[in-house]
Amino acid sequence: MNTHQLPMASIVIPAYGRTVLLEKAVRSCITQDYPATLFEVIVVDSSSNDANEKMVNALASESPCSIKCLRKKAEGPGPSRTLGAQSSKGEYIAFMDSDCEASPKWLRSGILAFGKNVGLVQGQTLPQPGAPHNVFNRSFELRQESFIYETVNIFYSREAFMKVGSFRADEDPENLVVMGGEDTDFAWKVKNLGYASKFSSDATVYHVVDVISPTQWLFDKRMMVVPRIPKDFPQTRKFFYLRYFFDQVQATYCLGLIGLIGVLFSWFSLLLFLPYCFVRGSEKTVAMKGLKRLFRIGFYFCKDSCNFFQLLRGSIKYRSLLL
């Protein structure tokens, strides 16, 4: 595909509250370096009030491209994306979250990345430039293709999308932080149909950096749905650490946990805790350097304990072991 053959494209943004962030997202979309007659912006809002709808309608009056807002009940972002895609006209459908801002060449770069038999293109996502960074700031960063295929920034060909048809509803739809997992489910269904995937570092969006509470930092309920991924798509096992652990941190945590329990029988079992201390203590970090890393290990042990129990809950619920 070349720039002289640009197709009709649709941008779909699910929304739930957060009108200020949504406005920034929409403004970044309507100013794309793409012919205004060849793309549309569709916001699908599930908020309890009409603030988002009024804002989108106001922007529509000044937008060079087609823009509209659809309303529906809260079911999580998945069904909102489905409605947006089914209401769209584009040969390609670009999904972005409402707490992101697209770079000017985002849409063009994502569309041009498609080729023969490519059904989906994942774009690069970076934290908002200049935002502060510490333990209680949360953002999202993705610089290479991820087997999770987060819909924070992803493109599908219409053909591939319609063959799968819809994202599943969320298990906790009326919460700003949903359970998630529907994006991974959808992408792997597309790949299982035989479509290829690509990554575009030029199709960049910038994700907001949120300030979160200590409780939010400690407890991530989304971890509970992760064991469902290898249950539904066994081929994804290879992407997890030693196939049965979320990552190296969780693997060494489990080893350390065995060591702590083993203290009841022998103090030498504490040696099993050393790999965890090394992995957590050697991570690159902005704060808590030097001897402060010892405190960091303690803080993260609490967080990793919460992650372990969430993964254990999910393993039992979905009958799929992943710790």
Brief account:
The chain is α/β, with parallel strands linked by helices and 323 residues long. Helices cover 36% and strands 18% of the residues.
CATH class of the largest domain: Alpha Beta
CATH architecture of the largest domain: Alpha-Beta Complex
Shape: elongated
Helix content: 25-40%
Strand content: 15-25%
Radius of gyration: 21 Å
CATH fold-level label of the largest domain: Spore Coat Polysaccharide Biosynthesis Protein SpsA, Chain A
Structural class: alpha/beta
SSE sequence, one letter per element: EHEHEHEEHEEEHHEEHHHHH
Average pLDDT confidence is: 91
Multimerization status: single chain
Number of domains: 2
- Give the low-pLDDT segments: none
The main sheet comes to: 8 strands, mixed
Total number of β-strand segments? 10
The end-to-end span amounts to: 43 Å
- The spatial strand order of the largest sheet comes to 3-2-1-4-8-6-9-5
CATH level-4 homologous superfamily of the largest domain = Spore Coat Polysaccharide Biosynthesis Protein SpsA, Chain A
Number of helices: 11
Overview of the structural elements:
Residues 10-155 form the Glycosyltransferase 2-like domain. The chain has 323 residues and is of the alpha/beta class. 36% of the residues lie in helices and 18% in strands. It contains eleven helices and ten strands. The chain has helices at 19-30, 51-60, 77-86, 106-112, 158-164, 182-192, 214-218, 228-232, 248-262, 274-281, 293-318, and strands spanning 9-15, 39-45, 66-71, 92-96, 100-102, 118-127, 137-138, 153-157, 196-207, 210-211. Strands 3-2-1-4-8-6-9-5 form an eight-stranded mixed β-sheet, sandwiched between helices. Strands 7-10 form a two-stranded antiparallel sheet. Helix 1 (19-30) packs parallel to helix 2 and helix 9 (248-262) runs antiparallel to helix 10. The protein is elongated and about 70 Å long.
